Amino acid sequence: WSVFKMFLIAVLVLLGAQLTVNETHSLTYIYTALSKPVSYAGIHEFTAMGLLDDKMIDYYDSEHREKVPKQSWMKDRLQKDYWDKGTQSRRSKQQHYCGGSRNSKKL
Fold first, then answer.
1. The pTM is what?
2. Alpha-carbon span 14 to 16, nearest angstrom
3. If you average pLDDT over residues 34-48, what whole number do you get?
4. In what order do the strands lie in the sheet with 68-69?
5. Domain containing 24 — which CATH number?
6. What start and end residues bound the annotated signal peptide (predicted)?
7. How far is 7 from 3, CA to CA, in rounded Å?
8. Domain count, the chain
9. Which of 7, 61, 88, 97 lies at a CB distance of 3.0 to 4.6 Å from 33, suitable for a disulfide?
């Protein structure tokens, strides 16, 4: 939860000068976990991405295991510590979702 709050604060600070009272923005996270690894190019056991106003702003997958920016303004304005903490958060979610999907098959 704290990584989410940190991200939300960072986004609001970065966009603060451009926001007006009547603007609406959406922040969405998509997590995809497969029940077992597959050997198809570009298909990963776990994928996570953040979208701001339907534009991808960050990405993580189980092969590269690093949260990376997908918008230049995020890369330019957020420090390495933000990405390191985000990577740890995504790795934790990968463990939770992928471990959970495997364990559920044993029931």
1. 0.72
2. 6
3. 89
4. 27-33, 46-52, 55-61, 68-69
5. 3.30.500.10
6. 1-26
7. 6
8. 1
9. 97
